[in-house]
Each structure stands twice: as C-alpha cells, then as structure tokens.
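Before the break, one more example. Copy the sequence into your notebook; we will annotate it together after we see the structure.
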Amino acid sequence: MTRIYTFYIWLVGVTVASLLPSSSLDVGFTVPLGADKGIHSLMYMILMWLAPSALRRANHSPNYRTLLGVAACIVLYSLLLEVLQPLISARTFEWADILANTAGVLGGLLLWHRRLTPLTITSATAQKPHK
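Here is what the structure looks like once it is written out:
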C-alpha cells in the first residue's frame, strides 16, 4: 500500500509545484538558465517510475503495454498542467517544459525497460561449455 501512497503524494507534489506562482517557489537562490528543465525531467522521471509500481501494488503487472499507456497519460497530464498554469497563476505555457517533462517520462520508461528486460550474458565463453 505504501507504493500507491508514494505515487499519489508525488503526483500532488508535481501538481502543486506546477500550478503555484513562480514567486512562491523562490528557494533563496537563482536557478541557472535551463536548470529548471532538468528539474522538470527529474520530477517526471520519478513520477513515471512510481506509477507502474503503484499499479503493480493494485494487482496489475507492469508490462510494456501498460507502461506505454501510463507514459501517455503522464505526458497528457503534464500538458494539462502546462495549459492550466496561465489560468491559475502568473506562469506561462512553455513547450520546452513539455519537452522536458516528456524526456523525464522517457527516462522513467527506460528505467522500467531495464527492470523488465533480463540481462543476458553474450560472451563467447558463457555460451560454450568448457570440456
């Protein structure tokens, strides 16, 4: 049950961080130009990593079809949040944020791919038994 709570807590955190006015996100130092895109990517990579874990806890196995569906939903959710930003706060819609979010989702997909794909040993000595 912890996985599903972790996912929802992270989802709420991403949502709040996306919709708060940028002035309320001031952390006391200037973020270097472009660094916010890395933060976007990291937030969405973690979200993509947590979502299938939450589904697995709900008795759904995270196969590739499920992962792609989850990834599409997260990208669409990030697009929705980006569209809502100018309506709710003094923030603006940025395609670069969508690209960074999508890159993060793809990174999370890659992590899941590595987890679901068993490692194979391809060395010649491992394939041929020694006599």
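Residues 2-127 form one domain. The chain is about 70% helix and 0% strand. Try to locate both features in your own notes.
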